[in-house]
Amino acid sequence: KWQLKKKIAGQNATWAYTNARHQKENASRNKLASARTLLGPALVCNAVEDWLRPECSTYRAMYVPRPQTWSNVQHYVDKIAQSGAFGREQSLEAQVDTFRGHSSEQLLAEELAWKAQHLVGKAIHAGLPTWIGSLIEEDFKNIGMILAKMVPNSKMAFKLDIMGANACKRWHQDRYVGRAVVSYNCCATEFIDHAYVDFWELKNCGNNDCIIRDNSQVCSANTGDVFFMKGTTFPSAKNGLVHRSPEKRLHADGNVKNRLLLKVDLM
């Protein structure tokens, strides 16, 4: 009887282990399936950490939806734009080496934290509220670390831009490794699947109406979302996302609405 009880106990333990393993595998498959939701040519992910998953190599862009939980900063952004505090190019910039210039992840994290604090400090001094500055600082650090792991031998440029009448509204591909963007107000980047692009027109004609074959297929990120676009030199077969800045938005008095944009470029 003792041997029979021992055998049954062993069988029950094996069944419990197998059942737990299957549940874990099903959960992983469900998570992966949800991560493979698409927005046009972009893979929709749950977090920026998902950009490091192997399946991302088969997509031209990765997209993390994020609800806007902060108050409207339009008034502050317009005021900074009018003051010229971000300079003639309406841009604050910081350069960061990835793992090529650091012996450890900790040292890179320390530089990212210092550069983020310094860059955001300038923006706050120019009139940006501290609560949105704290969010931008965290985005700077988190996105920077993920992109450094994605392409370790590249360099990174962080830019906090004010985009208004100076936005690039022509459809184009970026001629470098890649760019992550977050728009904190107003509107965000537009992009499209290559199946709906006339590449001869893209390379030879300046007319947006000629470049896009079906305007109903144009996709757009939302304010607050984190969006990564592969450039033409990204090391994967799928790269060179076709995109543009959105059409300018106007206030009731006809003045352009300026938007605050974080850019993290891999070069």
Task: Describe this protein's structure.
By secondary structure, the protein is α+β, with helices and mostly antiparallel strands. Helix content is 36%, strand content 19%.
- Elements, N to C (H/E): HEEEHEHHEEEHHEEEE
Structural class: alpha+beta
Strand content range: 15-25%
State the separation between the terminal residues, measured CA to CA: 71 Å
Q: Profile the largest sheet.
A: 8 strands, mixed
Shape: globular
Query: How are the strands of the largest sheet arranged?
Result: 1-2-3-9-6-11-5-4
**How confident is the prediction overall: mean pLDDT?**
88
Number of helices: 6
Task: Give the low-confidence spans.
Answer: 4-8
Proportion of helical residues: 25-40%
C-alpha-based Rg, rounded: 23 Å
The total strand number stands at: 11
What's this model, at a glance?
This protein is 36% helix and 19% strand.
